[in-house]
Design goal:
Elements: E1 2-6, E2 10-15, E3 18-21, H1 41-56, E4 62-64, E5 70-71, E6 80-82, H2 88-96, H3 98-101, H4 109-112, E7 115-117, E8 122-123, E9 128-131, E10 138-139, E11 142-148, E12 164-172, E13 174-175, H5 181-184, E14 191-199, E15 210-215, E16 218-224, H6 232-242, E17 250-252, E18 267-272, E19 276-284
Parallel strand pairs: 6-17, 8-14, 9-19
Antiparallel strand pairs: 1-2, 1-5, 1-14, 2-3, 3-4, 6-7, 10-13, 11-12, 11-17, 12-14, 15-16, 15-18, 18-19
Length: about 290
């Protein structure tokens, strides 16, 4: 099932060119008083809501997909965890290109570990990536994103995929420089997910998905998740050994080779097999 958030926080199921409005199931979510929960309420409740969502599809009102504004499919992740240099050829290009490494040692993922991105950087595909430092190199990075579906604390690799609610396409945008990754990758609008959440039951093997990114029609990145140095199950095991992962947390799995700069006026098209495709505009940030 392809679940999307759209317009004024409505919930939809995407089938072909139509969005089925199933927002009525949101009434079943609990109401919260301060303090707010440490998870995304919809993702936490999803297993119980899916049967009702499926049952309502036949009678749910529909709207053209082309007429909706797509929001991030996860509204309130508490953490965005990301894997650096997790494709061999990306390691090689980062080491070879001083405009990427800026004199810093490029550590492979086993030494570099994971890093966190600010949740305030999150946008959906109908928003635009806003270049805040146009005088510096700002790169695109396509990634498979896993959405955690349950509380996951020190999960062994063997059952790691069972804690995944679904998958999205991600763009881990970054400004190059000497600052820590988390700072350079947490700029407003620099974490894009979409176009929807594909439930985990529809992706039989997240370790064998083709991906492609184009800028203004030119292919920049083209690879498969089979080329990951550390696969998704390993990443979940490692992340959950440091942090308790919560429903709605996002795990960016790393980008392949072909990272390159974008600027205001560019258009990014990102596609991952089994999920779909999304188009994102790039603009100069307003001052």
């Amino acid at each position: 099932m392809r679940l999307c958030r759209y317009d004024d926080n409505r919930l939809g199921v995407v089938e072909g060119d139509l969005v089925h409005d199933v927002s009525h199931v949101l009434d079943r979510l609990p109401s919260f008083r301060y303090p707010l929960p440490e998870h995304d309420p919809l993702i936490a409740a999803l297993p119980g809501l899916l049967p009702e969502i499926r049952k309502s599809l036949a009678t749910a009102p529909t709207i053209s997909l082309a007429d909706v504004r797509l929001l991030p499919p996860v509204a309130s992740p508490r953490k965005i965890v990301a894997a650096p240099v997790n494709y061999r050829k990306h390691v090689e290009e980062a080491v070879a290109d001083p405009t990427i490494h800026h004199g810093q040692t490029v550590l492979e993922i086993d030494k570099a570990g994971l890093f966190l991105k600010a949740t305030s950087s999150l946008i959906g595909p109908s928003d635009a990536v806003a270049i805040r430092h146009p005088e510096r190199r700002n790169d695109h990075e396509i990634e498979l994103v896993a959405v955690i579906g349950e509380v996951a604390d020190r999960v062994p690799r063997e059952r790691a995929l069972s804690v995944v609610a679904g998958y999205c396409i991600g763009l881990d945008m970054t400004v190059r420089g000497t600052e820590e990754r988390s700072m350079r990758k947490s700029i407003d609008t620099y974490s894009v997910i979409g176009p929807w959440l594909v439930t985990a039951d529809e992706i039989s093997d997240p370790g064998d998905l083709a991906m492609e990114l184009r800028v203004n029609g030119e292919v920049r990145q083209q690879a498969s998740t089979s080329m990951l140095l550390r696969d998704l199950a390993t990443l979940i095991e490692r992340a959950s050994s440091f942090y308790t992962l919560m429903p709605g947390d996002l795990l960016f799995t790393g980008t392949p080779e072909g990272v390159a700069p974008v600027k205001g006026g560019d258009v990014i098209q990102a596609e991952i097999q089994g999920i779909g495709a999304m188009t994102i505009s790039v603009v100069d940030a307003a001052r």
